Automatic annotation (TrEMBL):
Transmembrane segments: none annotated. GO terms for molecular function: deoxyribose-phosphate aldolase activity. This is Deoxyribose-phosphate aldolase. Belongs to the DeoC/FbaB aldolase family. DeoC type 2 subfamily. Its EC number is 4.1.2.4. It comes from the Bacteria. The keyword Lyase applies. Keywords: Lyase, Schiff base. Pathway: Carbohydrate degradation; 2-deoxy-D-ribose 1-phosphate degradation; D-glyceraldehyde 3-phosphate and acetaldehyde from 2-deoxy-alpha-D-ribose 1-phosphate: step 2/2. It catalyses: 2-deoxy-D-ribose 5-phosphate = D-glyceraldehyde 3-phosphate + acetaldehyde.
Length: 330
């Protein structure tokens, strides 16, 4: 059934009266354009300042383990095979086979046709299966196709759905269309057993042009019921950046203050080193708060970050580097 403005307004928005914002296209536009503008220079300066923070060795050990637990280990290539997905899933469960104390990753992120393979391999390990959907990475498809894509992934066992918004619609100012699509996809995430697959909404921030647009789309997605907001597909540059993530963290912080609801954040694409990951963790703590320092509320979308985290972890534990080829290449 098509989502209308009146039915879309029932998306969870807490008790702050924000549901009225989505009662019409004009109301949504007034709200989004009434949000405080982002000071570009200030945002970039603060992100740069937070990136200079140093942490002590014991805190670094904890940060590396936390970052590993936050990784969505990802393979999203046309050349993906069932064997590659099985190997990736096995690595997510035991990132360092030589160290049983090494924590597991948060999730394995794959295309919908690989969900069943990932689910079978992961078993009851606790590692989630995330599936990209809604005509990833472009988001350019009819709504019924996007919903079918989502339902296929959910029925195959996906615990999480990473959807992409129609950036053309957003940049054209068709905010209610984007809002209604998010609401519809979230409804498609409901399983027969009543358990929802969590919905991550991907913005492709490298195409959104301004920080003001990043703030607006963050609020739009949260109003529509997103469980997570995510920077990028990893297919467009620039992908995740510290200033963009700063703006998104401010948005989830402010949304919680107004509604009492927490929404997660996932920077994805271009985060390759432990040093980068720790910069993001410092920012999460300083901007959103310690409650977000948990895999339930913050993730890294990455295919290469995990190996560097493992190398740095081994260095702290043994006093020597293991080398870039010590761990499997993904």
């Amino acid at each position: 059934m098509p989502i209308t403005a009146s039915s879309a307004a029932t998306a969870p928005t807490g008790g702050s009266g924000l549901a009225d914002v989505t009662s019409s296209d004009a109301a949504l536009r007034r709200f989004l354009h009434g949000l405080p503008g982002v000071d570009q220079v200030g945002a970039e300066a603060r992100a740069a300042s937070l990136a200079t923070r140093s942490i002590k060795t014991t805190a670094k050990e904890q940060a590396l383990d936390l970052a590993i637990r936050m990784v969505d280990l990802t393979t999203l290539e046309g050349s993906d095979t069932h064997g590659k997905v099985r190997a990736l899933a096995a690595k997510a469960v035991r990132p360092d086979p030589a160290d049983p104390a090494c924590p597991s990753a948060a999730a394995v992120c794959v295309y919908p046709d690989m969900v069943a393979t990932a689910k079978e391999t992961l078993g009851d390990s606790g590692v989630h299966v995330a599936a990209v959907a809604t005509a990833f990475p472009s988001g350019r498809a009819a709504l019924d196709i996007k919903l079918a894509d989502t339902r296929d992934a959910v029925e195959a066992g996906a615990d999480e759905i990473d959807m992409v918004i129609d950036r053309g619609a957003f940049l054209s100012g068709r905010y209610l269309q984007v809002f209604e699509e998010i609401v519809a996809v979230r409804e498609a995430c409901v399983r027969a057993d009543g358990e929802d697959a969590h919905l991550k909404v991907i913005f492709e921030t490298g195409e959104l042009q301004t920080y003001d647009n990043v703030r607006r789309v963050s609020w739009l997605a949260m109003l529509a019921g997103a469980h997570f907001i995510k920077t990028s597909t990893g297919k467009v540059q620039p992908a995740a950046t510290l200033p963009v993530t700063l703006v998104m963290l401010e948005a989830v912080r402010d949304f919680r203050r107004q509604t009492g609801q927490m929404v997660g954040v996932k920077p994805a694409g271009g985060i390759r080193t432990s040093k980068d990951a720790i910069k993001y963790l410092v920012m999460v703590n300083e901007v959103a708060g310690a409650d977000w320092l948990d895999p339930d509320w913050f993730r890294f979308g990455a295919s290469t970050l995990l190996n560097d985290l493992l190398m740095q972890r081994t260095k702290l534990r043994t006093g020597r580097y293991s080398g870039p080829d010590y761990f499997t290449l993904d």
